[in-house]
Automatic annotation (TrEMBL):
Topology class, membrane: Multi-pass membrane protein
Signal peptide start and end residues: none
PANTHER family in the record: SENSOR HISTIDINE KINASE CPXA
Superkingdom to which the source organism belongs: Bacteria
Catalytic activity: ATP + protein L-histidine = ADP + protein N-phospho-L-histidine
Domain HAMP: 194-246
Record's protein name: histidine kinase
Keywords: ATP-binding, Cell membrane, Kinase, Membrane, Nucleotide-binding, Phosphoprotein, Transferase, Transmembrane, Transmembrane helix, Two-component regulatory system
GO molecular function terms listed in the Swiss-Prot or TrEMBL record: kinase activity
Naturally occurring in which organism (per UniProt): Anaeromassilibacillus senegalensis
Location(s), subcellular: Cell membrane
Domain Histidine kinase: residue ranges: 254-467
Record bears the keyword Isomerase: no
Transmembrane segment boundaries: 12-33, 167-192
Length: 482
């Protein structure tokens, strides 16, 4: 049988084990109670059988007839005739009298008598059933004379029917208690399993809705336990997936717009130039637009390819010792004309010298271009963008600051995430900062952003400086001596 549900597995495993334990416990207690009661009965019989040592203490030198006479007197005066039966044997093992007054039944099994004959102390015991089916416990004591010959014996027989009824009653109570315990455990476990399975079913249903694209689906948490924590986790996951879906859609829309704009310009000028009849100045202007927009389109495609490489972990660097100061200066110079045309101020405090760095020249230039492009995009007309480079504690530090619109506090922790755009009105794909941050990470550096809304933004880039190995002290000593 294939068991699929948690409840069925629990029934087969936990409840099955509990059932086995209860059955084993009932059997063990029943056996212990039976042994205890039987032991008490046997001790009572042994106590009576021990009287024979005193009653027949001086019969070692007497005849068997004297023993039988004394034994009959002992049976007649026995005080416990109601609870146990006495039988007197002669020297040949025949029953000559009993305490019940009926003729003795010589056909009854008496293994205790045979055991007493073989025992050095003349003692034998037996528990079994008579020919009538009655269950009894019997103890036989055999009396010997001084010569070692058997002069007779006394047998004590106690019915175990009442004792077995008491044992059966106790066993029944134990079984009833076991059933009650099992029912209690089953009932309490049912409600416990229900308290787990019900929210799990709700979690499964909500998870299916989320998988189908309903990111507004939420699970109502009823308990503050592991299930409740799972509900919180899935709700948080739905929020994150919803945000990621929105960012993805915004990214597709933004990229589509970014691609459409240069394509529209290229197509428009191409159609205009195809018609002919234009002067050289207009032709040159059209070609300039086509080249510029083609370069812009190529940059967007390259950025998308870089993002794909970053996502798949295939982004590689061509590391070399480079002059970071020259690359930074070239990037600033690239945006100088744009800043003038947009009536913005691009200030660059170029230091005299910086240590070289070990890095990929194209990727580092890509980082500078991305940060400067963002600074210009988010700075209004008349604003200022400042670039400051310095070296401190073995790192090259480049700070690019602006006095633009700044980033709202709720958006600042997410601006380096893929697809995220704090301002949807400004062009861009939303992956530039994510790429820049990944490039700096691959260079063992960092990219940190500090911003205040309506005040401005500071982007700080840190990359380890490439330090030349110092000459050996022995070589320095040789140079000094020379």
């Amino acid at each position: 049988m294939v068991v699929k549900g948690i409840t069925k597995r629990w029934l087969l495993n936990s409840l099955g084990v509990i059932l086995i334990l209860i059955v084993a416990l009932v059997f063990s207690l029943s056996y212990a109670i039976q042994n205890y009661i039987y032991y008490g009965i046997q001790q009572a019989i042994n106590g009576r059988a021990g009287e024979l040592t005193n009653v027949f203490s001086d019969y070692g030198k007497r005849s068997s007839q004297d023993f039988l006479t004394a034994a009959r007197n002992y049976v007649e005066n026995f005080p416990n005739k109601e609870s146990m039966e006495l039988m007197v044997f002669n020297s040949e093992g025949h029953i000559i009298t009993t305490s019940i007054g009926f003729a003795p039944d010589q056909s009854q099994p008496m293994p205790d008598y045979q055991q007493a004959l073989a025992d050095a102390n003349g003692y034998g015991t037996w528990t079994g059933r008579l020919t009538s089916g009655e269950k009894v416990m019997a103890v036989t004591r055999v009396i010997h004379n001084d010569a070692g010959s058997v002069v007779g014996g006394v047998r004590y027989v106690v019915s175990l029917e009442e004792a077995d009824k008491q044992i059966g009653m106790v066993v029944g109570i134990l079984i009833l208690a076991g059933v009650v315990i099992l029912l209690f455990i089953s009932t309490s476990s049912y409600y416990f399993m229900k308290s787990i399975l019900t929210p799990i079913k709700e979690i499964g249903a909500t998870a299916r809705r989320i998988a189908q694209g309903d990111f507004k689906a939420r699970i109502e948490k009823s308990n503050d336990d592991e299930i409740g924590q799972l509900c919180d986790t899935i709700n948080d996951m739905a929020v994150e997936l919803g945000a990621a879906e929105k960012m993805k859609n915004d990214f597709i829309s933004s990229v589509s717009h970014e691609l459409r704009t240069p394509l529209t310009a290229i197509k428009g000028w191409a159609e205009t130039m195809q018609g002919g009849g234009m002067d050289d100045e207009t032709f040159d202007k059209g070609m300039s637009v086509i080249i510029r927009e083609s370069e812009r389109l190529s940059g967007i495609v390259e950025e998308l390819l870089d993002f794909s490489r970053m996502q798949s972990g295939r982004m590689t660097l061509t590391m070399d010792k480079i002059d970071i100061l020259a690359e930074l200066g070239e990037a600033v110079y690239m945006f100088s004309e744009r800043a003038k045309s947009e009536h913005k101020y691009l200030l660059y405090e170029e230091p005299r010298m910086l240590s070289p760095v070990l890095g990929d020249i194209n990727r580092l230039r890509q980082v500078f271009v991305n940060i400067l492009d963002n600074a210009l995009k988010y700075t209004g007309e008349g604003g200022t963008i400042s670039v400051v480079a310095s070296e401190e504690n073995g790192y090259i530090r480049v700070a690019i600051s602006d006095n633009g619109c700044g980033i709202p506090p709720e958006h600042l922790p997410n601006v380096k995430k893929k697809f995220y755009k704090a301002n949807q009105t400004v062009r861009g794909s939303g992956i530039g900062l994510a790429l820049a941050d990944e490039i700096m990470r691959l260079h063992s550096g960092s990219l940190e952003i500090e911003s205040h809304e309506n005040v401005g933004t500071v982007v700080t880039i840190r990359i380890p400086a490439f330090l030349e190995k110092a000459p050996d002290a022995a070589q320095d000593t040789e140079r000094i001596s020379e």
